[in-house]
Design brief:
Blueprint: E1 5-8, E2 13-17, H1 23-34, H2 38-52, E3 64-69, E4 74-88, E5 91-103, H3 112-126, E6 131-134, E7 147-152, E8 155-159, E9 175-178, H4 184-195, E10 200-202, H5 206-215, E11 225-230, E12 236-242, E13 250-253, E14 255-258, H6 264-286, E15 292-295, H7 302-306, E16 313-315, E17 318-323, H8 327-333, H9 335-343, E18 352-357, E19 362-368, E20 371-378, E21 388-389, H10 395-399, H11 405-411, E22 416-417, H12 420-429
Parallel strand pairs: 5-6, 13-15, 18-21
Antiparallel strand pairs: 1-2, 2-3, 3-4, 4-5, 4-10, 6-17, 7-17, 8-15, 8-16, 9-11, 11-12, 12-14, 18-19, 19-20, 21-22
Length: 441
């Protein structure tokens, strides 16, 4: 298959698109650059091979950018773009997720990632993706227009002493089995019900669920073993998702939802016992002792409230990097959400103009009787006299409900408002609300 060259970088380096024939070499590269231990490396190889297989519903074999040294034929830098759909209070929006971003140490500080991100951002724009998100190392992606503004991970953990024991002669009230094809409608319904707790969530359609259950390689670092929880009559009560390999000495639960009519208090002790037993089993297979169990379910989750004393270790969330290149377009998309929030606030039927400066440019929101009539970009020469001022990209904290105005002002003293009412209006439009996103990879 011919290689599609995007540009010649220098005498020996070319930037090109991937092909299916690159799968093994890209997997080797990602293992070398990103791997942190045996099982992490195995998971990275399986993930890369899955992406380049062409079998996933949101990724094609040419969705990697590769920098190749033609003098050796080796890949020396790589990135990819995983397209998906998320929802903002129920309104779908397209997202591009750059991932597996890395450069061989001998080729760093040459701007290779910047050149690839220029390409990925253009691909994302062509696909109609209004937002880009990435998980990654601290600070690095800020230089490409990203801000860390959505919770990522975080959770609670306990030890063997915290595993609740069954009472004498008590039968396990809930059992667990691997999900099957016929479970997909139940999984979709239960997942959607749980997603209502979050301000932002990823949209998992039938194709995504089927690929997760049956399409991915066994140790893909992003795969989840999905188990259906059943009561003693065999009725599905919920589901859990567990990674296929242990995180060192820990066995972590990363998905947990229950169906309507069931109680977290009833089911969660059974979940802990099953999680611990799974950790023991996988620990023997993977030569990793089982010492810790954890619920890696984000900053907030109903299960935390009902077993708080059983999960004494707390891990605060990291954050997604988020980029919104056309903020007015995104705000126009979610305008119904903003109007509904106003209608439920002290600013019901609000009429007025809100000018917001980002110091280099800005936006203007015009309201009439609670309706958001226009959202216009502002040039640098139009931002004088704004009611609120945000350093570049910090407004994303508000848009994605990651921080409220008081928290943003405390962190950024050059974030200012002309009066308290402006602060309250912004908090009404963008109230702080948690998100725990099971992204698509």
């Amino acid at each position: 298959m011919d290689k599609e060259i995007i540009r010649q970088i220098d005498e020996h380096l070319i930037l090109r698109r991937s092909t299916q024939a690159d799968a093994q070499e890209v997997a080797r590269f990602n293992k070398e650059i990103h791997g942190e231990g045996k099982w992490d490396e195995i998971g990275l190889v399986d993930w890369t091979l899955d992406l380049l297989s062409g079998e996933g519903p949101t990724f094609t074999p040419d969705d990697f950018t590769l920098v190749e040294d033609t003098s050796s034929g080796k890949i020396v830098s790589a990135c990819c773009l995983i397209s998906q759909t998320w929802a903002y209070e129920g309104i779908p929006f397209k997202v591009g997720r750059p991932e597996l971003v890395g450069t061989h140490k001998d080729y760093r500080r040459k701007g290779l990632i910047r050149q690839q991100f220029d390409v990925l951002h253009e691909w994302s724009k062509q696909r109609g993706e209004l937002v880009q998100v990435i998980t990654g190392i601290p600070y690095y992606y800020r230089q490409f227009g990203y801000e860390m503004t959505l919770n990522l991970g975080g959770g609670r953990a306990g030890y063997e002493a915290h595993v609740p024991e069954l009472k004498e002669d008590e039968t396990e009230p809930y059992t667990f089995r691997l999900a099957e094809e016929g479970d997909i409608p139940f999984l979709m319904e239960t997942y959607q019900r749980g997603s209502s707790r979050n301000m932002v969530n990823a949209v998992w359609d039938e194709a995504q669920w089927r690929y997760e259950l049956f399409g991915k390689r066994k140790y893909n670092i992003n795969r989840r073993m999905i188990y259906i929880i059943e009561d003693q009559s065999g009725k599905p009560a919920g589901f859990i998702g567990i990674p296929p390999h242990k995180w060192g000495k820990s066995m972590m639960l990363t998905l947990y939802e229950i169906a309507e009519g069931f109680a977290w208090t009833d089911i969660t002790p059974s979940v802990i016992r099953f999680l611990w037993q799974t950790g023991v089993r996988l620990g023997e297979e993977q030569d990793q002792p089982q010492q810790i169990f954890g619920f890696w379910l984000g900053e907030q989750h109903p299960a935390y409230d009902v077993i708080d004393t059983l999960l004494p270790r707390k891990r605060q969330p990291y954050t997604y990097y988020v980029r919104v290149p056309d903020l007015p377009a995104f705000l126009n998309l979610v305008k119904p959400v903003l109007e509904a929030r106003l209608a439920e606030s002290s600013f019901v039927n609000y009429t007025g103009e809100l000018k917001i400066s980002f110091y280099r440019d800005g936006i203007r929101l015009k309201f009439n009787q609670g309706r958001l009539e226009t959202i216009d970009p502002l040039r640098f020469d139009e931002i004088e006299g704004c009611a609120a001022n945000f350093p570049p990209f910090t407004f994303f904290h508000l848009v994605f409900s990651h921080r409220n105005m008081a928290e943003i002002k405390q962190a950024y003293t050059d974030c200012t408002t002309d009066k308290d009412e402006t602060m309250h209006l912004l908090d009404a439009l963008f109230p702080k609300k948690p998100s725990s996103i099971w992204d698509i990879a």
